[in-house]
Design a protein that fits this description.
Strand order of the largest sheet: 1-2
Oligomer: single chain
Number of helices: 10
């Protein structure tokens, strides 16, 4: 296909330096006239920079049929937006009807609306948690906060950490009230203090004596592992 283009004439290519190219406007026309007039007085343009200054931009108009048609369609749509919005809605409804999908589509719309409402409720509950922890009104809690996923609920990170710390404290107290719980708590304490017990078992007698006195002053009952560590004969020095 042949491409039709209209290109504005370059005034430098004209024999008359005072010639005003068709389609030129405003500041370019004024600049061209002033420099061209100076050129007439001197008989030449002083420099290549003067020549470039008096050369206006080339204006290229694309006249390809598909481009022209697209622009016409866009102009018509812009003049009648209500018409095309109505046609789009009616065509969508007719498509659902002819495909017998109107019912399932409406169900999905209802589910989407419910999900949006639940998301708003979840955000309000999360903000309420943070407001309670900080002792401020809910309105002062920003919507921007980290959320801890992977647990039972998507809790705000700050709330999840606070719950975890407080739960561990209550769990230790509840276990201490039960015989089996005390046994498990003791074993877990021994596991946590394993490195200390190894150090105690390899320490000289003076350290072991100090350890035992310290435990007695604090009223701590020695664990089984601690008693075994204290019962090991200390290594001879030197």
């Amino acid at each position: 296909m042949q491409v039709n283009r209209i290109v504005a004439t370059d005034p430098i290519e004209q024999s008359d330096p005072g010639h005003i190219p068709p389609g030129d406007h405003g500041a370019e026309r004024l600049a061209y006239r002033s420099i061209a007039s100076a050129g007439k007085l001197t008989g030449r343009l002083d420099s290549a920079a003067d020549a470039r200054a008096c050369r206006p931009r080339r204006h290229v108009v694309d006249l390809r049929p598909e481009i022209v048609t697209t622009r016409k369609v866009e102009a018509i749509r812009a003049e009648h937006p209500a018409l095309f919005d109505r046609v789009k809605r009616e065509a969508h409804a007719q498509a659902l009807g002819s495909l017998v999908l109107a019912g399932p589509y409406a169900e999905l719309e209802a589910v989407q609306a419910e999900e949006a409402a639940l998301a708003r409720r979840k955000k309000r509950a999360q903000r309420a948690m943070l407001a309670t922890l900080k002792g401020v009104p809910v309105e002062e809690v920003s919507d921007s906060f980290g959320v801890r996923y992977g647990g039972e609920l998507p809790l705000p990170a700050e709330a999840a950490e606070a719950i975890g710390r407080r739960q561990a404290t209550h769990q230790r107290r509840l276990l201490a009230d039960d015989r089996v719980g005390r046994q498990v708590a003791g074993l877990e304490a021994e596991k946590d203090n394993l490195l200390d017990m190894i150090w105690l078992a390899t320490s000289p007698a003076q350290i072991r004596t100090l350890w035992a006195k310290d435990g007695a002053l604090l009223g701590d009952e020695p664990t089984g592992l601690e008693r075994e560590a204290l019962g090991i004969e200390p290594m001879e020095e030197g």
